[in-house]
Amino acid sequence: MIECKIKVTLGSFILDANFKIPGEGITVIYGPSGSGKTTLLRAIAGLEKNQDGFLKVGNSIWQDELNFVETHKRQIGYVFQDAALFEHLNVRGNLDYVIRRSPGLSKDYISSIYNLLDIESLIDRDSKQLSGGEKQRVAIARALLVQPKILLLDEPLSALDLKRKNEILPYFDSLHSQLDIPILYVTHSQDEASRLADHLMLIEDGNIIGNGPINDMLTRFDMPLSHSSNAVSIIDAKVTGRESEFNLMHLEFLGGQFIVPDNGLSIESLVRIRVAARDVSITKKKQIDTSILNIFPAVVEEIVPEGRAQVMVRLKMNEVVLLACLTNKSASILQLENGLSVFVQVKSVAILS
Amino acid sequence: MINEYDISALIVTIRLAIVSTAILVIIGTPLAWWLSQTKIKFKVMIEALIALPLVLPPTVLGFYLLITLGSNGPIGKLLESLGGNSIAFTFSGLVIGSVIYSLPFVVQPLQNSFSSIGRQPLEVASTLGASKLDRFFTVIVPLSRSGFLTASILGFAHTVGEFGVVLMIGGNIPGETGVLSIAIYDHVEAMEYSQAHILSGGLLLLSFLLLICVYVFNRRFSILKSSEK
Predict the structure, then answer these.
(1) B105 CA: distance to closest CA in chain A (Å)
(2) pLDDT tens digits along B121-158
(3) Where are the domain boundaries for CATH 2.40.50.100 in chain A?
């Protein structure tokens, strides 16, 4: 568990961060530029001079009224936006910088970190000659050598092009599955947030406006993301079978089974599915003569107007929440109301992992 | 042609330059670091004070030093009351004069170099578990190599070339305070132009070579830096 009640004053900008988040998994801190995401991360690291309040990570109190633990004693892994490798040292020198200062570090731990991020091939290179993605890998390995109680990542992909992003994203998946420390990941990309987050924290103008499990935060109508034109829902599922005849695979989730193009994932792998609200339509009776494969029974939970011509509908498919964006007219023809049992048709999905 | 007096002047000059440069780097480093980090209001006053020797006639500086260090001056009296001798007209007096006189030549390159590093490398080092002093020696010093080289070379060269301060508080005692620049002046006074030529030519060449070093180092570092981008 991470408990934070910090106030940072930077000229006229005030960050007032009061939240509790789980002590495991990836919490994405999401918000527009200038909302205070990086300042929050810096405050957790103890890098902001004008910070007051209370901060507890796991069992360690890093800040309260009487004490302020200095950054170098906090045992944090901090990955800066541009990797920030020491330019006067090569890759090995950058990693040894931490190893020399951590006498208790075991060889097994070091090699497990190197394996996790494929460092061996980079270790004798000059840190200035690495690509952006390689620099980030070294920076993450360097941060993990600290044996941190928390890993703080400040927009680690924002300086990379799409190709490099796709190169490094699988490493975050393995960080997620192999590390048992909490990871705070700052980003302003909804794509990265929906792919990586277990938990989402929304920040705006220096205030935390919401904080909860990812799909709740995406689909709650009191949160801004459910009202954007690219509102989405996230569904966690498992690969359970394939139809090799049609090159399709089956993804089972609590509300049914998706049939999607086979991308080669092995049976039993866990996948995350993203469904855009505008790709979901609603019927009162189950359609039979349709090209759409993914049809599930659902119950309407709440309907809110979205602009002048549309409504956003939140549905539940056996506890799994899904958003559908319809026109006002369709909603009125279907006589949609809370509690109504319907069928949802999902036109397309994105497989995120 | 070179006589004993010239040799001893050469030795005194080099000894003076080495000792002064060492003291300058030791004093100048924390001073420059403090100036590069502090946000206090009277920072400009301190910067101006350090830069004074750049514009002040050396004789003015030498005059005030003579007044304070001499046997009737406050520091001279203090030293005598402690059982020591006045340090005016001694090698120690010369070193004090040179250090004050050459201070801006050491502090300014160091301060520029420290400021240009920015706060990020220090923050990175602190997240990696390095304490304050540790960070300074493992991050700031290696990243300021060119600054230290420039500062030492300029401090050394400027001390070799000083005349006015030395004349006022040194008194030109052979083997103790007699330095090259004064030896040249003496040779000219005595119409010994050929000896003045040798010494002047030597100093000219030395200064030129040292400055080439400064520019080569700075160029090498700036090329290194631009190739990183």
Answers:
(1) 25
(2) 999 999 999 999 999 999 999 999 889 999 999 999 99
(3) 232-351
Provide the pLDDT for residue B180. Answer: 87
Q: What is the pLDDT of residues A151-194, one digit of tens each?
A: 999 999 888 888 888 888 888 888 888 888 999 999 988 888 98
Using CB atoms, which residue from A45, A86, A87 is nearest to B127?
Answer: A45
Contact A76 B143 (CB under 8 A): no
- Whole-prediction pTM: 0.84
The domain in which residue B152 lies consists of 4-228
The C-alpha atoms of residue A242 and residue A245 are separated, in whole angstroms, by 9
Chain B residues 92-131 with a CB less than 8 Å from chain A: 120-121, 123-131
Angle at A77 between CA A72 and CA A78, to 5 degrees: 90
pLDDT digits (tens, 9 = 90+) for A272-303: 999 999 999 999 999 888 999 999 999 999 99
What is d(CA A106, CA A147) in angstroms, rounded to the nearest whole number?
Answer: 11
- Angular region, A164: left φ>0, alpha ψ -120 to 50, beta rest: alpha
Report CA A346 to chain centroid distance, whole Å: 23
> Which of residues 35 through 54 in chain A touch B, CB cutoff 8 A?
45, 47
Report how far residue B173's alpha carbon sits from residue B93's, in angstroms, rounded to the nearest whole number.
12
| Tokens 């160091």 sit on residue | B110
Say if domain A232-351 classifies as CATH 2.40.50.100. Answer: yes
Boundaries of CATH 3.40.50.300 in chain A? Answer: 2-219
Q: What is the ipTM of this complex?
A: 0.85
Considering the domain A2-219, what is its CATH architecture?
Answer: 3-Layer(aba) Sandwich (3.40)
Q: Where residue B67 sits, what CATH number does that domain have?
A: 1.10.3720.10
**Chain A residue closest to B128 (CA)?**
A98
Contact A80 B131 (CB under 8 A): no
Mean pLDDT of A215-243: 92
Closest to B222 in 3D by CA, of B150, B156, B152: B150
Contact B152, B109 (CB under 8 A): no
> A70: closest CA among A47, A102, A97?
A47
Cβ neighbours of residue A328 closer than 8 Å, sequence gap 6 or more = A305, A308, A309, A310, A311
Ranges of residues in chain B whose predicted pLDDT is under 70: 1, 220-229
Q: Locate A84 and state its tokens.
A: 């920030």
